[in-house]
Structures are given as C-alpha cells and as structure tokens.
Design goal:
By secondary structure, this protein is α/β, with parallel strands linked by helices. It has 3 domains: 110 residues, Nucleotidyltransferase, domain 5; 71 residues; 114 residues, no CATH class. It has a 5-stranded mixed sheet with strand order 5-4-3-6-7. Strands 1-2 form a two-stranded antiparallel ribbon. Strands 8-9 form a two-stranded antiparallel ribbon. Strand 1 and strand 2 form a beta hairpin. Helix 11 crosses helix 13. The longest helix has 33 residues. The radius of gyration is 28 Å and the shape is globular. The N and C termini lie far apart (85 Å).
Length: 370
C-alpha cells in the first residue's frame, strides 16, 4: 500500500499538507468534534414562526413543527407562553419571526418586549422569494413557511432592538400627516378640474363643500406639525439632530423630521451607503454574460416616500447651494441624464446628513472661488 501526501485548503485559512495516515485521522477527528459542537449550538434555538392577522395568530414552532392558533389579544399571548414553556427548556434561545403587518402586530410586539422575548420582523417579499416555486396558501401554511425561513437562518437572524417611544410616536404623527396631505391634494386637484371644465364654480354648493374640506385638512395638518415640533423639542437628542440636519441647504424641517423617524435617530443604518440602498438611490449593475450589458439602474424595492422627499430636497439644493448647483450643471453639460445627476445630488445630501450627525457639528458650506 502506497501513501501519497494530501494537500488540504480550509475555507478561511492557509493550505496545509498531510504526509501520513495518522495526520488524516487527526484532522477528521477535529472536524467531527466541531460539527458535533455546532449541531449542539444549533439545537439550542427555538424558532417561533407567526403569521399575524387582525384577530388571530397562527404559530409554528421549529424544530418539532408544532402548530396551533391563538387569538390576537392578551389571553392568546399567555397561551403562547405556556406552549413555549412546554416546548423549550432553561437556556434555550427563543426567537419569534414574523412578517411586517402594520398595526396588527403592535400589541403582540409590546407583549414580547415585556417578557424579554426576541422578535424579528422580515419583509413579506423576502420570505416569499426565499421559498422557491410554491402553490396555494393559508394562514397555517404561511406560519409553517415563516418558521422554516427562520429555522434555516437561525444562526444569522437577530432580534430587532426595541423601538424608542418618541420615535414610534413621531412615525405615527408623520404617517397621519402624510395621509391628510394626500387627501387634501386629491380634493385640490378635483376642484381645479371641475372649475376648469365648468362642472362647478367656486361659489357653487359643490365648490364650497370641497373648499371647506380643503381648509379643514390644512388646519389639521398645521396642528400635527405643531405637535411634531413639540415632540422633537421635548427630547434633547432628537432636537440636536434636527438642528444639525437643518444646517444643510435643501433640508427643511419636514425632511429632517422624517429622516430622524426613518433612521431611528440615525442608529438604524451604519452609514449613508446602506440608507441609499434602502431609499432606492444606489444604482446596481444589470449585466449577464456577454450578451446583456444594460446600464446601471436603481431598484424599485425601496422606501418611495423617503425617495420623494429627498428628490424635493435635491431640487431645492441645486438652486440654493452653489457647490451642488455647479456640480449639477457640469454633469448635465457633459451629456449626463438629468435624473441621474439629480440622484447623485440626493446621495450627496444623504452623505452630508450622516456626516453632520456623526461629527455632531453643523454643516460648513464650501464656497467656490470666483
């Protein structure tokens, strides 16, 4: 029997050579030890997949595939705790995985926080695309699929940090303001069309009713803005961040407030690049092999509201900020597409916002020499 040396290449290490059979056995024993240790660590996690609806919660526990349904109220939450005590033991990590469902999961999240149980909310599209080809659905199957998603990624999923009370209230106020602004815009547009086509006049009954609704929305919007300003001023950290953001030309009070709520006072994203990807400002390549050579483009999977507000900020900045105005005009004169240049201005504004918050100093305008 002849022995030839083996050359092994670890994934994250330098290659090494085994010259005899005893060396190979030692390597295999080491690998087996780490595999057993890893499997023990993996077994110490209990994934709770939850499909949230208005009145009920469908639950699937992994491993074990135990499934049951509870009501979406305190009595049902207590029943879930009893089931978790039966399925898990002391020292086991429990992680609840569910989709973003707006207000339906609010009470359940608060209950989990009070019991210090980790909760991870995943975008529904992310879970759906990870499943591959599927057919049919119901609440029970959805809970099982969410649990399977969490179980396969239990080593990388982390519990979401608890949302600050002021940030949650700020988001609620901004969402209500956005709803009123959109409703008011709809009435304004409709009234203009009716007047332009002669359907009604400003002094007619229909015109007066719609104008009263517009005035009512305007009053409530101003009241919400006052409430939001009081909330910002009541917290020293939020107020300081708002002042820093408003030192940048093009960033007004509404955009500064929205950025604080969206980024959780700039703690949710590590840097401006990550936020640009979230807001749909980062371009991605569109290539495949040698036949497809498309231009880079931004993704439509983004926060469209943040993108729209930053678009307004960029349009204002290229009029008021001499540096950005000069840069924009230079790029356009070189033949670049205007929307592409505007997107660069949006990215620059985001970079400035993250920079001033990180340095905790107001933005210093760069003056171009004459």
């Amino acid at each position: 029997m002849y022995w030839s040396p083996l050359l092994l290449q670890p994934v994250d290490g330098a290659p090494f050579r085994i010259s005899d059979f005893r060396g190979l056995l030692k390597v295999l024993e080491t690998v087996n030890y780490f595999l057993i240790a890893k499997s023990k660590v993996m077994q110490e996690t209990l994934i709770v997949g939850v499909d949230v609806s208005k009145s009920t919660l469908d639950v699937c526990l992994k491993p074990g595939n135990t499934q049951f349904r509870i009501v979406n109220e305190l009595a049902g939450f207590k029943k879930l705790i009893q089931e978790l005590k039966r399925e898990s033991r002391l020292g086991v990590r429990v992680l609840v995985v569910m989709e973003h469902t707006g207000q339906y999961s609010y009470r359940f999240e608060k209950f989990l926080q009070s019991r210090t149980i980790g909760c991870c909310k995943i975008a529904a599209l992310q879970i759906k695309r990870s499943l591959g080809v599927i057919r049919g659905k119901n609440d029970k199957i959805d809970a099982e699929r969410i649990g399977e998603y969490g179980w396969l990624r239990r080593e990388i999923l982390m519990a979401d940090p608890p949302l600050q009370k002021q940030i949650g209230e700020l988001r609620s106020l901004l969402n209500l303001r956005l709803k009123l602004v959109r409703d008011r815009s709809g009435y304004i547009s409709r009234l203009k069309e009716m007047i332009a086509t002669g359907t009604c006049t400003v002094s007619s009954y229909q015109g007066k009713i719609q104008q009263q609704i517009i005035d009512f929305h305007s009053t409530k919007i101003r009241q919400l803005e006052i409430k939001t300003k009081l909330l910002i001023n009541s917290d020293a950290s939020l107020n300081r961040t708002c002042e820093l953001l408003r030192s940048i030309k093009g960033i007004g009070w509404i955009i500064a407030t929205y950025m604080i709520a969206c980024t959780e006072n700039f703690e949710r994203f590590g840097n401006a690049r990550k936020f640009n990807c979230y807001a749909g400002l980062a371009p991605f390549k569109h290539e495949s092999g040698s036949s497809i050579k498309g231009r880079s483009r931004v993704s439509h999977l983004a926060n469209k509201e943040a993108k729209a507000l930053l678009n307004l900020a960029a349009s204002c900045a290229i009029r008021c900020d001499q540096e950005l105005k000069h840069y924009y005009q230079k790029r356009v004169s070189e033949g670049k597409r205007k929307m592409s240049c505007l997107n660069i201005i949006r990215s620059k504004l985001v970079a400035r916002m993250f920079a001033v918050v990180k340095r905790q100093t107001p933005y210093q305008e760069y003056r171009i020499a004459a």
